[in-house]
Write a structure and sequence with these properties.
heterodimer; A: about 180 residues; alpha+beta; 2 domains; five-stranded mixed sheet; 9 strands; elongated; B: about 475 residues; mainly alpha; Cytochrome C Oxidase, Chain A; 14 helices; binds protoporphyrin IX containing FE; binds copper (II) ion
């Protein structure tokens, strides 16, 4: 199962639990006298909040180290790709790109080796999003004018990867794209 | 005319205006979704102008819906100014007219977040950019003055620590702060903070606009300011809705009023803090942003939802569970709204986890979760208020029939509509695409289904509105 299905499943299960709780509570509410909710309310509330707070702390400590900023931080990239996004295409090259004379090269990357993308924009905000051949979003970073975002990644599967723009950048946003190959 | 009658008339006018804009904005949304389904064919410019109009209008009306509801209920505790209320209404109308002119006549289409420097890359009428920014200024000034006015009135009756319920942190206090006052205070402070940021943002925009190229802004700073404003305003809109819930839900359910306790006091004071830093989660994919901000963003996002949402949910559940409750449309809307808020909140917390955001950011997961806590959360809080107020205006209850049926179809339409977005997000389908690339084989089908569910939602909304609208119209012929 890929990441996205796991996330959806997790979400749907939690949403289902909430629905069940609310339906149960609703159906219990037609009594003549008070028998439930408020009894021992302080203890219930404290338990509830403590459980949630500990859950939050556990989830934070598990997920934060997984953040993309720390990916392969201590390794040297086998290749560096420069990306200069502009309305409405991605310029990609193996050397730094001059915004006044943007060039774009065919990009081929090695499989199983770490590569680095240095992503910026020559006009408005864009987003450099890498999709695999099953149209699954696998990695992304924003392309912002005046800043360079460094994205490190390892491709395990050879093939064609598509770049789509994921930050609204104007009228042709939905057709702004590029691709590269991994072999 | 006495003050209360005047307030009722102003509130009726607000309700009518909001509902009119709501129905129109939903129709724009349905149109967009049908276009994404390829069932109809709009030019991309039309699509993105509609998207911009839909976004700003929706955010705007639910902010004012919360504000005017709080204003109405505040009159139970403190003196409120009808003049300020009217002033805010006038500026809101002017602002909305200006805004729609820029999008429909000027074809302005930056999306509601208008990320710098997109507004300066004019692919529309040249005048539209300054007028769009000005329209935000007009709305902002109206709401700013209104918020300050309400806060001022609260502080005339309660001292500052009392308005924040600080005396409840310790035992043995003499003054009780009603939960409604605490939540309203906390929320108004948040509203004021984000409107001040909006002013700064507009100043920076106009500085560049008039400098003719000698001054340019920093894109990262502008993005931080934009999201501080945008994230905060829509969250505060929700909290305004929650304030009305605290005030009205027990009352209409025939249950004892919510009492202030130390943990409600702590929860909402924490919320004020966290909600102001949670906006960092909009910049997770800007790797150039200082990493400490990213971490703060995730921690604040987790803890912002804990106190406010879970304390509210807990309070609502114990109020109802195994207790005698008088059900009506009003409290059904409130309770379904709490469930929608929680479900949307879970979608939000998942997305606010940096490692998930890496593969969810700006996919349909984003409109999925924010539509859940808006269309199935905050909107229902406001509709509950409208329904209650319409009755309160004349002191008569209309026969409540088919309430459960109405709610049922509202839920089918609303949750069906957002579910299509969630599935789209799980298929990595990008948001804000007028047209979907072919590799997303399910995208068009999901869009079409989403649009049809939204039609069910709209239909249920219209049925629910009908009674409210009739009563509000009648208000205008009432004299003393
Ligand atoms: C059933 C009613 C609604 C429908 C059919 C609808 C439809 C849509 C659609 C199709 C989009 C564009 C999604 C995309 O990015 O591809 C959208 C965006 C949006 N909607 Fe709604 N919506 C509804 C209700 C609401 C409500 C109640 C709010 C309240 C806040 C809201 C606020 C927004 C915002 C802020 C955006 C983002 C606009 C942008 O990207 O600039 N919508 N909506
Ligand atoms: Cu782009």
């Amino acid at each position: 199962m890929n990441t996205h299905s796991t996330i959806l499943l997790l979400f749907l299960s939690l949403a289902f639990i909430i629905a069940v709780v609310f339906i149960t509570v609703y159906r219990s509410s037609k009594r003549k006298e008070e028998t439930g909710g408020m009894i021992n309310v302080n203890k219930k509330r404290l338990t509830f909040l403590l459980v949630l707070a500990s859950l939050a702390i556990i989830l934070l400590s598990v997920t934060l180290p997984d953040s993309p900023y720390y990916l392969y931080a201590n390794e040297t990239p086998s290749k560096v790709v420069f990306v200069g996004a502009q309305q409405f295409n991605f310029n990609m090259a193996y050397q730094a790109i001059d915004p006044k004379k943007p060039i774009t090269e065919a990009i081929e990357l090695p499989a199983n080796k770490m590569v680095e993308f240095r992503v910026t924009s020559f006009d408005v905000n864009h987003d450099f999003a890498i999709y695999n051949d099953k149209a699954e979003l696998i990695a992304q970073t924003q392309a912002m004018p005046g800043y360079v975002n460094m994205l490190r990644w390892k491709f395990y599967k050879p093939g064609t990867y598509n770049i789509l723009c994921l930050e609204f950048c104007g009228v042709a946003h939905a057709v702004m794209r590029a691709s590269f190959t991994v072999n | 005319m006495n003050n209360i009658l005047k307030l009722k008339k102003i509130t009726s006018a607000w309700i009518l205006a909001i509902l009119l804009l709501f129905v129109l904005a939903i129709s724009f949304g349905i149109t967009m979704r049908f276009n994404q389904a390829n069932d109809i064919k709009l030019s991309p410019v039309t699509f993105y102008s509609l998207m911009t109009t839909h976004g700003v209008t929706m955010v705007g009306i639910w902010v004012v819906a919360g504000m005017m509801a709080v204003n109405y209920l505040l009159s139970r505790y403190v003196k409120v100014s009808n003049g300020l209320n009217l002033f805010a209404m006038a500026l809101t109308v002017i602002g909305v007219v200006m805004l729609w002119l820029t999008t429909f006549v000027g074809h302005y289409h930056t999306g509601w977040t208008f990320l710098y420097p997109l507004p300066f890359y004019t692919a529309w009428e040249k005048w539209a950019t300054p007028v769009f920014l000005l329209s935000l200024g007009v709305l902002g000034i109206g709401w700013f003055v209104w918020s300050v006015g309400m806060l001022w009135q609260i502080l005339k009756r309660y001292s500052l620590p009392q308005a924040f319920a600080w005396q409840h942190f310790k035992k043995g206090h003499t003054v009780e702060t009603p939960p409604f006052i605490l939540i309203t205070t906390v929320t108004l402070v948040g509203v004021i903070a984000c409107l001040l940021t909006a002013v700064l943002l507009l100043i920076l925009y106009f500085a560049e606009y008039f400098s003719k190229g000698t001054f340019t802004n920093d894109a990262l700073l502008m993005k931080n300011l934009t999201y501080f404003f945008g994230h905060t305003i829509i969250n505060e809109a929700l909290y305004l809705g929650v304030a009305t819930l605290y005030e009205l839900l027990p009352e209409v359910s025939g249950r004892p009023k919510f009492k202030m306790t130390w943990y409600v006091a702590v929860a909402w004071n924490c919320t004020l803090l966290f909600v102001l830093t949670a906006f960092f989660h909009h910049l997770y994919m800007d790797f150039a942003q200082p990493q400490s901000f990213q971490i703060i963003g995730q921690v604040a996002s987790y803890f912002a939802s804990l106190p406010s949402a879970s304390v509210t949910a807990f309070s609502v559940i114990v109020l109802i569970y195994k207790n005698p409750v008088k059900w009506s449309l009003t409290n059904l809307l409130f309770v379904v709204g709490v469930a929608g808020w929680l479900i949307g909140g879970i979608g939000a917390v998942i997305d606010a986890t940096i490692s998930n955001n890496f593969v969810l950011h700006n996919t349909l997961w984003v409109p999925a979760h924010f539509h859940t806590y808006n269309a199935m959360g905050n909107v229902l809080f406001s509709l509950a208020f409208f329904n209650w107020a319409a009755k309160d205006f004349q002191g008569i209850a209309s026969p409540l029939r088919y309430d459960k049926t109405k709610i049922f179809w509202l839920m089918v339409g609303g949750f069906g509509f957002v579910l299509m977005f969630y599935i789209g997000g799980a298929y990595s389908i990008p948001r804000r695409y007028a047209e979907y690339p072919n590799e997303f084989t399910n995208a068009k089908l999901l869009a079409s289904a989403g649009a049809w569910f939204a039609i069910i939602y709209l239909w249920a909304i219209i049925v629910i509105l009908f009674n409210i609208v009739m009563k509000c119209i009648k208000m205008f012929s009432v004299s003393e």
